[in-house]
Write a structure and sequence with these properties.
- With about 350 residues, the chain is of the alpha/beta class.
- The chain folds into two domains: about 140 residues, 3-Layer(bba) Sandwich (Glucose Oxidase, domain 1); about 200 residues, Class I glutamine amidotransferase (GATase) domain (Rossmann fold), CATH 3.40.50.880.
- It is about 20% helix and about 35% strand.
- It contains ten helices and 19 strands.
- Strands 10-12-11-13-14-19-18-17-15-16 form a ten-stranded mixed beta sheet, with helices on both faces. It has a seven-stranded mixed barrel with strand order 1-2-8-6-4-3-9. Strands 5-7 form a two-stranded parallel ribbon.
- Strand 18 and strand 19 form a beta hairpin.
- The radius of gyration is 20 Å and the shape is globular.
- The chain starts with a strand and ends in a 5-residue tail after the last helix.
């Protein structure tokens, strides 16, 4: 069946329908990872976005148990070629069947290199994936212009409090769209992890006397999370050590008077170099974000840059002055990798008083 990807600038790509045949409007982004397509599909940070994979062949090792959440969150999936067979001793099925089961519409057979170059040149755009060959371009462009991602944090967060057993430090994890590997990375270090819904009051969390607080990754524009930012202000005012990743990093900055802005096309992939400004060492990191903290708006008496992106100089982390708080824009829990910066979880354990 034919499928069409229509961008808000009027560009149309024609390909073949994969997954669900339902029509979808979404923000169109690209990811440069060569592996880990299942982790991309199940990363809650992609809610409200259709993902273009720049690697040309996707699905060759099938679907394994490496899901980062209970379901797929991407609005759509765009690939050059979808593997017709899968070969892996851990495979539980094909990516084609997975996309259908998860009701994810997609398109294959388009020039993803041309699409990526277009997004790099013009910036992230809204787009529609449709199988309707009789679409009215003027009507579609009006819909694309009106589309906004909206409050996707409320969509992806957990419904109830969950406790993951551990014999070490007690960590409260605020789930803004947390990847499973964040809790797993803490558990591997002996932590008891209590996962809270995104809109949990600070008083509820602090009343349990946690040894540390983790603010997770998540989707969307951080400035739309106004009620969450107010609760983070209260968490900041406490003496509890805090470690924040991605969206959590941005929300902590906003809670302390800094500003954020949308990037032209964001950072999404597993090969982004970041420099630790304290040691001068460069790490290769996994990233997935379209917004960034404006360091010019930082009050140095509150926070100072701790990491910087080597490619474009944007902020990749903050150290909060006089507080046991540090935050990073990238993903130290990266799965399938790289795991160069996994030591940051050990730093968090040390902030909480060290392993027991």
């Amino acid at each position: 069946m034919k499928a069409f990807l229509i961008l808000e600038d009027g560009t149309v790509f024609e390909g073949t329908s994969i997954g669900s045949t339902r029509e979808v409007i979404s923000e169109i982004v690209f990811n440069t990872s060569m592996t880990g397509y299942l982790e991309v599909l199940t990363d809650p940070s992609y809610a409200g976005q259709a993902v273009t994979m720049t690697y040309p062949l996707i699905g060759n090792y099938g679907i394994t148990e490496d899901m980062e959440s209970k379901r797929s969150w991407v609005d759509g999936y765009i690939v050059r070629e979808l593997s017709r067979t899968n070969s892996n001793f851990r495979s539980k099925g094909s990516i084609q069947d997975f996309l259908k089961e998860q009701d994810v519409p997609g398109i294959a057979g388009i020039d993803t290199r041309a699409l990526t170059k277009l997004l790099r040149e013009k910036g992230t755009m809204n787009g529609m994936i449709t199988t309707d060959e009789n679409y009215d371009l003027d009507v579609v462009l009006k819909k694309l212009k009106d589309y906004t991602v909206g409050d996707v944090v409320s969509k992806v967060t957990c419904d109830d409090v969950t406790v993951l057993k551990g014999s070490g430090k007690k960590v409260a994890l605020l789930d803004f769209g947390a990847k499973n590997n964040i809790a797993k990375s803490l558990q591997e270090r002996g932590c008891q992890v209590t996962i809270y819904p995104a809109h949990t009051k600070a008083e509820t969390i602090l009343s349990t006397n946690p040894d540390g607080i983790m603010l997770s990754n998540g989707p969307g524009d951080p400035k739309t999370c106004t009620d969450i930012i107010e609760e983070i202000k209260k968490l900041y005012a406490s003496s509890v050590p805090i470690f924040a990743i991605c969206l959590g990093h941005q929300l902590m900055a906003l809670a302390n008077g800094a500003d954020t802005h949308k990037m032209k096309y964001g950072h999404r992939g597993g090969n982004h170099p970041v420099k630790d400004l304290q040691t001068g060492r460069v790490y290769i990191s996994s990233q997935n974000h379209g917004y960034v903290v404006d360091t010019d708006t930082l009050d140095p008496s509150i926070a100072v840059p701790a990491f910087v992106n080597v490619n474009d100089g944007t902020n990749e982390g903050l150290k909060y002055t006089g507080k046991n708080i540090f935050t990073v824009q990238f993903h130290p829990e990266a799965c399938p990798g790289p795991q160069d910066s996994g030591y940051l979880f050990d730093r968090f354990i040390d902030m909480m008083g060290g392993a027991q």
